[in-house]
Structure prediction request, 894 residues.
Amino acid sequence: MTDTYARLVSHGLGRDLARKLGLPQPAELRRYRPGQPLIDGPVLVGGSGPGADGIAAALLSWGLDVRRHAVPKEKLGGIVLVLDAVEAPGDLKQPVLAAAPSLRDLAPGGRVVTVSRVPGGTPATAAARQGVGGLLRSLAKELRAGATGNGILLAEDISPTAPSALGALRFFLSGRSAFVDGQFVRVSSADGRMPDDADAPLAGKVAVVTGAARGIGAAIARTLHRDGATVVAVDVPGAGDHLAEVANGIRGTALQLDITRDDAGQRIIDHAVQRHGRLDIMVHNAGITRDKLLVNMDQSRWGSVIDVNIAAQLRINEALLASEHFRSAPRIVSVASTSGIAGNRGQTNYAASKGGVMGMVRATAPLLAEYGGSINAVAPGFIETEMTARIPFATREIARRLNSLQQGGQPEDVAEAISFLAGDSAGGISGEVLRVCGQNLVGA
Amino acid sequence: MPMDGQPQTVRKAVVVGGNRIPFARTGGAYTKSSNQDMLTAALDGLIARFGLQEERIGEVAAGAVLKHSRDFNLTREAVLGSALSPETPAYDLQQACATGLETVLGLANKIRLGQLDSAIAGGVDSASDAPIAVSEGLREVLLDLSRAKTLPQRLQILARLRPKDLAPDAPNTGEPRTGLSMGEHQALTTAQWNISREAQDELALNSHRNLAAAYDAGFFDDLLTPYRGLTRDSNLRPDTSPEKLASLKPVFGRNLGSEATMTAGNSTPLTDGASTVLLASEDWADGHDLPKLATVLDGEAAAVDFVHGKDGLLMAPVFAVPRLLARNGLTLDDIDYFEIHEAFAGTVLSTLAAWEDEKFGRERLGLDGAFGKVDRSKLNVNGSSLAAGHPFAATGGRIVATLAKMLHEKGNEGGRPALGLVSVCAAGGQGVVALLEAYSEGTTPGEIHD
Prediction:
């Protein structure tokens, strides 16, 4: 699971050599550690109007050093481009080009965040808004040294300082979004609230994580615990020993359960409510792969992948939606996959299940809205896990480098995105798919 | 005021749940695991299931039958290696195969008396990692050598060594006072009670089928945590058949004059494994938002004079159960589940035969006639030691946790809490039996409150 190449070219002779030969030089990403500042260095807020003013005020209230105009040669932690008021493509020029020279001053691990609106309105307005998409995604590919670019898309009547707009802004500026690059998050309602303690945003909440015995699931369980949640770690009985280790490490409880059982949802609810008094967050992480070209696919490979990866989630969600214990701003976060977006040779069954997850998330969002709830998916790209460590060397090496950050993500990167979507500040984001892929160059 | 002979219960001791690791045939998956490793793993699984990390449990009691001398503080060491608070006290207990059940009874009594609010009972055994001692001759020489002061003295002592002294003294399961192995002892009893080969094989078959069905139904999902790649008991043969069992050659009782009936199929193999049971007062369980599956009502120990052949080595429960039930005003007909440890199929069947025997009832149990008949459909319904295996001290914990869950699921069917009886025979002619009841609010029969 270690990226030997990345270590080799990160310093000394290897670094010089890679530079001369023009080889990829993956940077060490800036990742969140509890207690560290939100972002190192001042943040330049570009754009004008009430939206930009509101965001600048919010950044100030978080204790950040805010600039409204670039100070030449000053290293910047981040640049926020507030473009919520653009009405025609020509409106982009001034704010974008004014901020452009500052990109040179962006510190390693820096952040660029655009704030704009969901395409709509007059043809010219829609063009301007959609233009931000192409602009941001291209810019993200130009950034170096572990810097990333992401965007916030506001629905028509949502203020740039709506709770979830600010929640997403915090997430993107922070080290929590290290492997999220070139992505947009859509804020569709004014629901949600900023947490009382930014270092414990899930304090007092009870979260269930399936597939928690190892890999990404174990990282999710640990991250939710770090963020203050009490965690019920779920995995199949056969993985119980690893599950116990995870649960004991985070003072949670282990629930050995085959999630494809008909009563799995009820068992999860019963355990959470009886042991911990409530259930706030459901993370559907459990998933399996049974790869085969479709021409060689058999009943069992197809059936088990669909059953575990999507049918079980649907059944569990049905139980959750019917439960009176899942009514207080509940959160569901599912793990999808970039395979479900772009497709992957040999993974028709897996991609069907993960595509299914995204469809389910979209259609479930309205059902949770009346309880102030939300449901979203996170689609990981290439993540360094035991599973991807088994991919043959050359294929793995290519898969790792084919993204803007030129490296694989860590399980913790996926976990951070899930923790963000599981928190109060993401209440206005629902039915979305957030990719954690380092801006994968394939299937964007 | 309590009546004479009635258990004086101050408060209830409840079974919250249990955890064990799958049992492994000796020389299998746990060959390299020590008793401490396995007990720690079983504890950590229990801790994870019930969220007991950093919890100071009132007391942990466990033990092992085959024990290294270095493991003088086995249970405390396992606690220190677990996720429990290091401020949790622990003690070791040893009563042969009844070790596990006795830890449950002892700790439950402390809870009932208010000395403890929470406790973990357990047991572990490894026949794979069994201690091997040096011979008596070598041991005496080594001890004398350590006391010698001069070189000539040392040489003189060393000269006493003979080649045979260098042979290790391996442990065996033979009875010290008879020289007979447990299997040979049981063969005598099996023959005495005319237990047929077919009946023994049938009991073994049911044990495997019941255990396999319980696994398939997910019954053990919250009773067991995998260990070292094992997710089920390695002795379990779900596909065994009457024909397969009938084809096995007898291994015990081949020189008794009567037909030898005991095979490797209807006797338990040597096994490695560990089990734990979480016990608590009602308040402690409630305060920790934990379930209350069953109440530990009462227990009884008995021993028989097997040395002079008065009774079979493993027949002590035959005497303990009637005493236990009489004290609680119960008969065999009141029991919903019987958990009779299957040391050998012959042990269970000899026990049932003795209880059904008029003469035995009158002459040995002091009753008016036969003690009674056990409804076989209530016997070891989720399998027992013949299928699961029998890591001596771990069997009691396996049975108590399994039975507590069964009683909880049956609940108040029939207008009263379900009752379960545990019977475990042990080396040295001993037996320990216990009475459990599905947990229900309020008082239970035979319970006295002040």
